[in-house]
Amino acid sequence: MYTGKKVLVTGGTGMIGSHLVEQLLERGAKVRSIVHQRKIPDEIKNKGVEFLEGDLGDSEFSDRAVKGMDFVFHLAAFTGGLGRTSIHPASTLTPNLIMDGNVLESARKENIDRFLYASCTCVYPNMEKDLTEEDAWTGNPPAVHASYSWSKRMGEMQSIAYHKEYGMKVAIVRPSNSYGPRDSLDPQTAHALGALIIKALQKMNPFVIWGDGKPVREYIYAGDAAEGMLAAMEKYCVGDPINLASGEYLSIEELARKIISLCNYKPEIAFDKTKPSGQLRRVLLNNKSENKIGFKARTSMEEGAFGRRRQSHHSRQFCVRKTGIHSIAQTCSGCQWRYDERKRRQKSSQRSGSNLQSCSITIHSRFLSLSSRFFQNKYDRKSQRSLGSN
Asked: pLDDT tens for residues 294-337?
């Protein structure tokens, strides 16, 4: 489906977006990507990708970005963790509404063949049950990240409206919390797992966890989320949102304690209850995606987050301790390790005098070589939830 097609990926320099670009290139697509606030990852440099620099909040630039494209994957968003969205609600909500509207309208005017809108799990209200797609509009999302949640809800509604009124073929996906190489390591914009890694590498003591640490989150590897997006674009452009879920979940405290144990120090753990905890539970059901597009996440957390050895379906070797190869392309500003896929060996490393000088290959290797025993009990639940095991 993608061979020879001209494909725009907004947000293509981000974590999921850059994995999506890689997979599109593997499928023979001609890819254009937008560069705005993040630098271009090394993995997609000099690979034939056309990069346009600009702001999709500018309708003229949006038109230029979409011009001549067959497909549009719209992943770009003004986002961040609770630390950003709770403090900057206006500068989260308004730019997202403008950008989503611009890109959809540009796609309509260009008469593109297919459009994918990347939503997120924050559209769901607080619920204790595992979430189906239909649960999204049964209540309001938590107030602490309402600005981002409502921007994504409205992005979904805009996409559905364009599908209904103009007949645009639109796919809408809601990935679980994503993780993997190329995550932001800016504390204000990092995903939950990345933010905890930053604290551990800085040897924070006390190790501060926002809220009470009880919220449970499901995690999906960025490469798997990208695969789900490709499948949704191909098989389910019907203006109907679908979850992209893995079935693996942990509480924030569980995740923090495991990261700390692998970073070779024993800090005091403190819970800052003046800060928001976020939704108590956010675990998705994947039944609809499995039935409609045949999607099953293939990368377990022990492989994707903690570096257990395997050969992935993206031709990337994940073996950090036994081969000395890093699966995280850029771990922190003080210690950069890049992976050479062709030679399967360490390509380069360089150190700079930052506040993360304590970061070392030993710490990274320990962090990325998690014992599978910790997650075994998490997998047991997976077989009971129709998430790919039955």
From this structure: 999 999 887 877 654 333 333 333 333 322 223 333 333 333 32
The span from the CA of 156 to the CA of 162, in Å, is 10
Looking only at the bridges linking them, the beta strands covering 269-272 and 30-35 are: unpaired
Counting every residue written for the chain, the total comes to: 390
Q: What residue ranges define each of the domains in the chain, with the CATH number in brackets?
A: 6-182+219-249+278-293 (3.40.50.720)
Contacts of 342 (CB under 8 A, 6+ apart): none
Q: List pLDDT tens digits, range 178-237.
A: 988 888 777 666 667 777 888 888 899 999 998 899 999 999 999 999 999 999 999 999
User: Strand locations in 184-334, DSSP E?
Assistant: 207-210, 216-221, 241-244, 249-251, 269-272, 281-282, 310-311, 317-318
Structure pTM? Answer: 0.78
DSSP string over 64-126:
HHHTT-SEEEE-------HHHHTT-SHHHHHHHHHHHHHHHHHHHHHT-SEEEEE--GGGSPP
Give how far the C-alpha of residue 316 lies from the chain's centroid of Cα atoms, to the nearest Å.
18
- Say if residue 32 is exposed, middle or buried (CB neighbours under 10 Å; 0-12, 13-18, 19+): buried
